[in-house]
Design brief:
The protein is of the alpha/beta class and 730 residues long. Among the domains are: 194 residues, 3-Layer(aba) Sandwich (Rossmann fold), CATH 3.40.50.1700; 112 residues, Immunoglobulins (Immunoglobulin-like). Helices cover 30% and strands 19% of the residues. Bound molecules: 1-deoxynojirimycin. 1-deoxynojirimycin binds next to loops.
Length: 730
């Protein structure tokens, strides 16, 4: 029999095949229609709120309705971390009491850690480091089983160009190449089988969810097919190629058709073009959101199920529509049995790839040995420090000099959870570290005066002035608390709230050196802070050890090396704002009337893509580009000499960009093609070489791939706006 299981996925999972493909087919043949439909259903692990409990054979009290559905084979997976005991109890029912023995998957959103939280994905992206992303995936893999989950709805690889969209926090930012590398590394980490039960990754939200008009969550997405294929699709391709076992279609419409019932997207693109072999799981009630009063894709629920099944939606999260309608639709001949079998097969193959028939249970002894929260906290701290981006550093404000007295002010400093970031529901690491604890640990003399809230009320000018008076330097927290970004957290205004600006002005008037630490899940428009603070450290929502990480960077124990992966606008009016935009016939870099700019303010980003400082400085020289090799081995080789011109050792992120000068469609101003991080001692020079396969430089034009040709420009440099322009030809 032909091997149908995704070879790449199995390789990634390293799964010993517990059952064969032939056995899967046999199982499908033996299943009743009801049991097949059961596999396509995902419902909540907690069951009906306040519903009765029933004891399983070993005396574990489970939600009675869920236990019964599992027993009858009416669910293929559950959503919501149910804990180790319940997970194993549900699984025992599935494996011992159900008529057909099919293991369960239990999923939830463990997106930047579980008990321990690393920084939010947008921050993780700023590390520009595949190992960091993979490590974060492994952390998720190890901690998810502790909460009774063997599936995480991670990574989100949605590109986003508009930080009004709160879910920008959950993704890698605005570059498809970097986003794909990050997504793939996280998939590998999550599916590394590092934990007490293998965990499946889920790349989401398929597709273009981050392109929501005006940054309003769940909103319409309209874009050309070439933008879709060149910008929004590549990270999914990378995730599929890394072996992601599941994909979650998005809530939004894409050019008029909701992704949940979009056959072009779920079949032509996902299965045929990307060769995805795992299964699709709808987003929460994604199928029912296509009903009359919502997207309006069919008059009845039955009609929606027909559409969703035909499109290629394998499992229905929480809507209950497959459960309600599908059996009858098959009996009426409206949905072919072959479609049901196809989806069941996809699901069973993923369960098999996870090794679930062989090892269905969470190994509690292994789990206990693996959940080393102190070690996880140390790891999260190191990761968080790597994600910090130094946006400004004047008058030698940072690092803090040994022995200085610090006035720490601002909200959120004493509470790790409130700054940890979206999806922080499962935090349970007693080794978490606040900023005061971090400073104390580093031996810094400081006082802490909150002085103002994130949003509400007025700044306590008296307390702030008094605190500053006693100190040599003020370290002030600004931004948004961790829960103010994420799903459903689109906002109109991304400037600092009035109360924070008031505090900023009070602090500025004290004339003490002012170091701003930004906590936020999205880029903010902060021109006032950029002007008035002496230093700005972007710490994002740094996770549970964030306080320690921020202290490490402030004190210079860690030299910041993060680089932005989204632009910081000067004003909300610039949005959407992205570095890899197309050119215009009236280039905005020409300062003349009737060019593509604004009359009342700049069009450039305040802080561009790729930007970030450190405590060392670097000089670039001898930038070169050449084309080498033949045929499909042809590559563009960019090189330069980078010298650490500073006084301390540091890491520079050397970035390679290209621009195709002439295309069938206009091509972007710059596109990131690769990067290399290079560690340099003071005075040291290294030659950095970045090789880019010529095949990587082509682009999609609808469904045709056009190889790069003709005159090209390239830059090997420190960010998306600087560097010597190099010319070459393909
Ligand atoms: C809705 C979100 O859009 C999705 O990202 C998440 O995975 C599901 N809810 C499940 O929590």
């Amino acid at each position: 029999m032909k091997k149908m299981v995704c070879a790449a996925a199995l390789a990634t999972c390293g799964a010993a095949m517990a059952i064969t493909d032939a056995e899967i087919e046999k199982l499908i043949g033996e299943m009743t229609l009801e049991e097949k439909v059961g596999q396509l259903v995902q419902l909540g692990s907690a069951g009906k709120e306040g519903g009765p409990l029933s004891q399983d054979a070993t005396g574990v009290a489970l939600p009675a309705d869920v236990a019964e559905m599992v027993r009858k084979g009416e669910v293929g997976s559950l959503i919501g971390a149910c804990g180790v005991t319940n997970f194993n109890a549900f699984q025992r029912i599935a494996m011992n009491e159900a008529r057909v023995k099919i293991p369960l998957m239990v999923g939830h959103d463990m997106i930047h850690g579980v008990m321990t939280q690393a920084p939010i994905p947008l921050a993780l992206a700023c590390a520009w480091d595949e190992k960091t992303w993979q490590d974060c995936g492994r952390l998720i893999a190890v901690e998810s089983p502790a909460k009774g989950c063997n599936w995480t709805f991670t990574p989100m690889v949605d590109m986003c160009r508009d930080p009004r969209w709160g879910r920008i926090a959950e993704g890698p930012g605005q570059d498809p190449y970097l986003g794909g590398k990050m997504g793939a590394a996280m998939v590998k980490g999550i599916q590394s089988k590092a934990g007490a039960l293998p965990v499946a990754a889920c790349i989401k939200h398929f597709a273009a969810y981050g392109g929501a008009e005006a940054g309003r969550d769940y909103n319409t997405v309209e874009m050309s097919e070439s933008t879709f294929r060149n910008v929004y699709l590549p990270p999914f391709k990378a995730g599929v190629e890394a072996g992601a076992l599941t994909v979650m279609p998005a809530f939004n419409t894409l050019n008029g058709v909701p992704c949940s019932v979009n056959k072009w997207l779920l079949t032509d693109i996902l299965r045929d073009h990307l060769a995805f072999k795992g299964f699709t799981i709808s987003d929460w009630c994604g199928v029912s959101e296509c009903e009359l009063d919502h997207h309006g894709m069919a008059e009845t629920h039955a009609g929606l199920v027909e559409l969703a099944m035909d499109a290629g939606m394998d499992q229905d999260m929480m809507a209950g529509l497959y459960r309600k309608e599908l059996v009858q639709l098959v009996k009426d001949g409206k949905v072919p049995m072959a479609q049901v079998d196809r989806s069941v097969r996809n699901i069973l193959q993923v369960k098999n790839a996870l090794g679930l028939w062989e090892n269905p249970y969470i190994d509690e002894a292994k789990l206990k040995a693996q959940i080393d929260l102190a070690a996880h906290a140390r790891q999260a701290r190191a990761i968080a420090a790597k994600c910090c981006v130094l946006l400004k550093n004047e008058k030698d404000a940072l690092p803090l000099k040994p022995g200085v007295k610090v006035a720490l002010v601002g909200p959120g400093a004493e509470d790790c959870v409130s700054i940890s970031g979206t999806w922080s529901a499962y935090i349970e690491n007693k080794f978490e570290m606040t900023l005061p604890e971090g400073l104390r640990g580093a031996g810094v003399t400081f006082t802490y005066t909150p002085g103002y809230d994130w949003q509400k009320g007025r700044a306590d000018a008296k307390a702030l002035k008094a605190a500053a008076k006693e100190a040599d330097v003020v370290v002030a927290l600004f931004g948004q608390k961790g829960t103010d970004s994420g799903e459903g957290w689109s906002v109109l205004d991304i400037t600092l709230p009035k109360v924070q600006l008031e505090a900023l002005n009070v602090l500025k008037r004290t004339k003490k050196p002012l170091v701003a630490v930004l906590i936020n899940g999205r880029p903010l428009a902060i021109p006032e802070l950029a002007e008035k603070a002496d230093a700005i450290l972007e710490a994002w929502c740094p996770g549970t050890s964030g306080g320690g990480a921020i202290a490490d960077v402030l004190t210079g124990k860690v030299n910041p090396e993060g680089r932005l992966t989204t632009e910081f606008p000067v004003s909300v009016g610039q949005l959407p704002l992205y570095y890899n935009r197309l050119r215009t016939g009236r280039p905005s870099d020409v300062s003349a009337p009737y060019c593509s700019c604004y009359r009342d303010g700049p069009h450039q980003a305040l802080y561009p893509f790729g930007y970030g400082l450190g405590y060392a400085t670097f000089a670039y020289a001898n930038e070169l580009v050449k084309v080498e090799g033949e045929g499909n081995q042809r590559k563009v080789v960019l090189s330069c000499d980078v010298t650490n011109t500073g006084k301390v050792a540091g890491v520079e992120t050397v970035q390679a960009y290209t621009r195709q000068m002439v295309g069938v469609e206009s091509r972007p101003i710059r596109e990131l093609r690769g990067w290399q991080k290079v560690a340099l001692a003071p005075g040291e020079t290294k030659c950095v070489t970045i090789e880019v396969p010529v095949a990587q430089l082509g682009y999609w034009l609808k469904d045709r791939f056009v190889p790069a040709a003709g005159p090209m420009r390239a830059w090997i440099t420190r960010d998306s706006v600087s560097g010597k322009t190099l010319e070459f030809r393909l």
